[in-house]
Amino acid sequence: MEDTYRHKGLRRKLVETVRMKGIMDERVLRALDTVPRHLFMDSSFIKFSYQDQAFPIGAGQTISQPYTVAFQTELLDVSPNDKVLEIGTGSGYQTAILLELGAIVYTIERQKELYIKAQDLLTKLGYKPHFFFSDGMEGKPTYGPYDRILVTAAATEVPEKLLQQLKIGGIMVIPVGDRFTQSMVKIVKESESNYKRTNHGSFVFVPLITGTEG
Ligand code: SAH
What is the pLDDT of residues 172-200, one digit of tens each? Predict the structure, then answer.
């Protein structure tokens, strides 16, 4: 659970790489500089923690590439105290980034093993999101509506239930496409029936899957 000067130095370099790739939001870059990514990695890949790449975290899932995390977070445009629903806790790395921005985070994971691991780690690090082991496609209506909804797995289409749980004026960021490539979609809910949808480039995510496992 150590965060050494060496880690901090590598992290600073990673932040500069991500900045060079086009991320401009200083708050997002600062969050990336703060969260010790090496603690969220699977032990076999620790030495690659500060490379700008996705890596396996078990259960066939991945920790997202830092650039992708920064890109989604920048698009989401989070303000302190925003109520954010995150689908796909995974390693918990993106969750920590949202918390560093001052968000109140509700995070859902469908793989029991990852849900337990992320909960354990984030709690040890002092992060306090609300954790749920359930199918994120259903959202979490009890605690909604949300200012922001972030989906970190690939959807074939935008789940209607998630749109319903977004506040008017709220933003959802979700990769939408087939198994091999997805378009980063940003949706602004302008009224109960009006949505402004824009596309922001191609990405590759593990699929969003219905139901739970484990
Ligand atoms: N944000 C994570 C990325 C994890 S990969 C990170 O930074 O580590 C995507 C995650 O979404 C996986 O853990 C996968 O199990 C989860 N997932 C896929 N479909 C889901 C669903 N319907 N509900 C909740 N989580 C889901």
Answer: 999 999 999 999 999 999 999 999 999 99
Q: Kindly list the protein residues whose Cβ atom lies closer than 6 A to any atom of ligand 1.
A: 61-64, 87-88, 90-91, 93-94, 108-111, 114, 135-137, 152-153, 206, 208-210
CA of 182 to the centre of ligand 1 (A): 15
Partners of 63 in beta bridges: 55
Q: For residue 104, list its beta bridge partners.
A: 83
Please enumerate in sequence order all residues whose Cβ is within 8 A of that of 198, keeping only pairs 6 or more positions apart, or say none.
Answer: 185, 186
What percent of the chain clears pLDDT 90, i.e. is strictly above it?
99
- Domain CATH number, residue 141: 3.40.50.150
168 lies in a domain?
Answer: yes
Does residue 213 form part of some domain? no
Percent of the chain with pLDDT over 70: 100
Cα 145 to ligand 1 centre (Å): 21
Q: Is 44 a catalytic residue?
A: no
Question: Looking at 64, 91, 134, 191, which residue is catalytic?
Answer: 64
Single-letter code of the amino acid located at 178 = D
Residue 30 lies in a domain: no
Is residue 51 over pLDDT 80? yes
The domain in which residue 106 lies consists of 52-203
| Residues paired with 112 in a beta bridge | none
Whether the per-residue pLDDT at 1 is higher than 90: the answer is no
Residue 40 lies in a domain: no
